[in-house]
Amino acid sequence: MKVLLLEDVLLEQLRFQRTIEILGLKIDLTIANHGKEGILLLKNENIVPDLILIDIKMPGQNGIDFLKELKSISNLKNIRTVAFTTSNDPQDINMSYENGISSFILKPMNPNLYKETVKLLITYWKLNIQ
Questions:
Q1: Which residues contact 79 (CB under 8 A, 6 or more apart)?
Q2: By C-alpha distance, which of 93, 84, 94, 92 is closest to 114?
Q3: What is the DSSP-derived secondary structure letter of residue 5?
Q4: How would you classify residue 46: left for phi > 0, otherwise alpha for psi between -120 and 50, otherwise beta?
Q5: pLDDT in tens, 40-84
Q6: Which string of b and e fits 49-81 if b means at least 16 CB within 10 Å?
Q7: Which of 30, 34, 61, 80 sits a CA distance of 20 to 30 A from 10?
Q8: Burial classification of residue 38, based on how many CB atoms lie within 10 Å of its CB (0-12 exposed, 13-18 middle, 19 or more buried)
């Protein structure tokens, strides 16, 4: 399974990568630091992930703006996209669903809950994409 992670915080990128390794989840992970970089990877590098995980609050192009652009590109608009974020702002949640997010998941701060959430998230989408 190919996953594109849009996350601007290096520590969060490393946390996700390390959790995947600890859990032994077999995914091909690509990381983009913000929405514009994600779009460039998708368009110019011909990366076509099975799943895109996005942080909502990012500098430059945030997660909502990324979703809007992604859903306007015919050959990319059907990629499953999940908000994996610390934002629990009702406006962010509503805007995400209005712009085609598949799911909205709050990123737990507790390390054990984080690990369990990542495990469930990846396992669920592996089963439902293939």
A1: 48, 49, 50, 51, 52, 70
A2: 84
A3: E
A4: left
A5: 999 887 778 999 999 999 888 889 999 999 999 988 999 999 999
A6: bbbbbbbbebeebbbbbbbebbbeeeebeebbb
A7: 80
A8: buried
What are the pLDDT digits (tens) for 95-124? 999 999 999 999 999 999 999 999 999 999
Q: How many folded domains does the chain comprise?
A: 1
What is the separation of C-alpha 79 from the centre of its chain, rounded to a whole number of angstroms?
A: 11
- CATH number, domain containing residue 61: 3.40.50.2300
Please name the amino acid found at residue 103. S
Residue 74 is encoded by which pair of tokens? Answer: 């015919």
Number of H helices, E strands in the chain: 5, 5
Q: Which domain holds residue 120?
A: 2-129
